[in-house]
Specification:
This is Calx-beta domain-containing protein. GO terms for molecular function: calcium:sodium antiporter activity. The protein is mainly β. Helix content is about 5%, strand content about 45%. It has 1 helix and 36 strands. It has a 5-stranded mixed beta sheet with strand order 2-9-7-4-5, with no helix packed on it. A 5-stranded mixed beta sheet has the order 11-18-16-13-14, with no helix packed on it. A 5-stranded mixed beta sheet has the order 20-27-25-22-23, with no helix packed on it. The N terminus is likely disordered.
């Protein structure tokens, strides 16, 4: 049997969905790749748009720049200069968009990464500390994709220096069986550094054990250093996606069912994962629909965008730009829908999270304070599901800024035995921020102790600040669901029947 290579199209996309570049590191280079049939040719167009950065003030824009792929080409590059000014303006972003010159060309299609967000890291800093944290609070990695790379960033004053320590702990994965642990690994940020990376190997075994996790923890070597502090993402959970599966289908779904995103934070990145048999392949389609937000006015819609999972793939991403307008319209939402290209495929099925609601947090606010609170007043978490992630949101005027403090207090759970406590952890909301996260590890012990609770408390660092107030949900109760069970009801009934049987024999 021969394969007709011309039957399959070239699939063109950016290599990454986000690039961070210092304001002084010009130009930014953007890689386009053909992840499909490289014998196909296509002409692409590249343009810049949107975001908080301004064309010709912060960067030099692109308008329909032509990029030609001929047969055999796998990679091309485009670049655009970054303008280094002297203004203290914070990090800014713009979006680079990829499109086909001829969308009707059957030999070419776009991949899921047709937009890339360029984040310009401001190098003009006011006096203040460096704020160090992990870039994300969760990373999914296949058991066979070693090592896992973890990004640490300084989101504060990059003129400051600091020495950090990175360690691994907790979770359902076991050190030296599932991953190689870290113990106080030193990471040094010097003046001007915005990003550093650490990595740890994942151990690929042959056991069918399901997905497992561990936590990577960040701390300051010198907590008394006034020029450095930790940001809210001081813990990142690594989810090891098991690649040893019994016969069964791949189960494809979105990672979460709801994402809150500021109107100015474009694009929104949506994670799709295979929580079933990762040896299976499938082609998925992603579309947007419904809600109170309007396509091409509030966001750029998706229509049957193809996402391909091949054997071993555990996670994919799609993104769609958010349009930042000047209207005071309140928060709006739209739905992203996932479906199988071939529903009759026996090796693939959809999981329960086949829809994700995107909430666009309006950043055009009438005069008024920011109103800060937890998203929910109660979170239930299994003792083995570490860490617990807690969402804080501004349900008021998102143009306002505030510094919050988060602390924990024991209920029936005890800090250091059942969970890792938090003491006055700083969370910064800047203008435009709608949502932040904090997390704290849960300690999985072997004691049968029943469900236990502790409380997470939110307060303003400066209660006299007229531009910030607390909402009604300033406390959230964390319920740790015990996974160490005493003999169940069924065992007790068996004992009762046994004693009744013995009694009848005796009498």
């Amino acid at each position: 049997m021969t394969l007709d290579s011309e039957a399959s199209p070239g699939v063109f996309q950016f290599r990454e969905s986000e690039i961070r570049v210092s304001e002084s590191a010009s130009p930014v280079v953007i890689v386009i790749e053909n992840i499909g049939n490289t014998t196909q040719s296509a002409i692409l167009r590249v343009s810049t748009a949107g975001g908080t950065a301004t064309t010709n003030q912060d960067y030099v824009g692109l308008s329909n720049q032509q990029v030609t792929f001929t047969s055999g080409d796998g990679v091309k590059e485009v670049s655009t200069p970054i303008i280094d000014d002297d203004e203290v303006e914070g990090n800014e972003s713009f979006v680079v968009h990829l499109e086909l010159q001829d969308p009707s060309n059957p030999s070419a299609t776009l991949g899921p990464k047709s937009n890339v967000t360029i984040i310009i890291v401001d190098n003009d800093q006011p006096p203040g500390p460096g704020v160090f944290q992990f870039r994300v609070s969760e990373i999914g990695v296949s058991e066979s994709a070693s090592p896992v790379v973890i990004v640490i960033e300084n989101i504060g004053n990059t003129a400051q220096s600091a020495i950090l320590r990175v360690s691994t702990a907790g979770g359902t994965a076991t050190t030296n069986q599932d991953f190689v642990g870290l113990s106080n690994q030193q990471v040094t940020f010097t003046s001007g550094d915005g990003v550093k990376e650490v990595s740890t190997p994942i151990i690929d075994d042959d056991e069918v054990e399901g997905n497992e996790s561990f936590v990577v923890h960040l701390e300051l070597q010198d907590p008394s250093n006034p020029s450095a502090t930790l940001g809210p993402k001081s813990n990142v959970t690594i989810i090891i996606v098991d690649n040893d599966h019994p016969p069964g289908p791949g189960v494809f779904q979105f990672r979460v069912s709801e994402i809150g995103v500021s109107e100015s934070a474009s694009p929104v990145v949506i994670v799709i994962e295979n929580i079933g048999n990762t040896a299976q392949s499938a082609i998925l389609r992603v579309s947007t629909a419904g809600g109170t937000a309007t396509t091409d006015q509030d966001y750029v819609g998706l229509s049957n965008q193809q996402v391909t999972f091949t054997s071993g793939d555990g996670v994919k991403e799609v993104s769609t730009p958010i349009i930042d307008d000047d209207e005071v319209e309140g928060n709006e939402s739209f739905v992203v829908h996932l479906e199988l290209q071939d529903p009759s495929n026996p090796s693939a099925t959809l999981g329960p999270k086949s829809n994700v609601t995107i909430i666009i947090v309006d950043n055009d606010q009438p005069p008024g304070p920011g109103v800060f609170q937890f998203r929910v007043s109660e979170v239930r978490v299994s003792e083995s599901a570490s860490p617990v992630v807690i969402v804080i949101e501004n349900i008021g005027n998102t143009a306002q800024s505030a510094t919050l403090r988060v602390s924990t207090a024991d209920g029936t759970a005890t800090a250091g035995q059942d969970y890792i406590g938090i003491s006055n952890q700083q969370v910064n909301f800047t203008s435009g921020d709608g949502v932040k996260e904090v997390s704290t590890p849960i300690i999985d012990d072997d004691e049968v102790e029943g469900n236990e609770t502790f409380v997470v408390h939110l307060e303003l660092q400066d209660p006299s600040n007229p531009s910030a107030t607390l909402g009604p949900k300033s406390n959230v109760t964390i319920i740790i669901v015990d996974n160490d069970q005493s003999p169940g009801k069924c065992e007790i009934l068996h004992l009762l029947f046994f004693y009744r049987f013995i009694y009848r024999i005796i009498t």
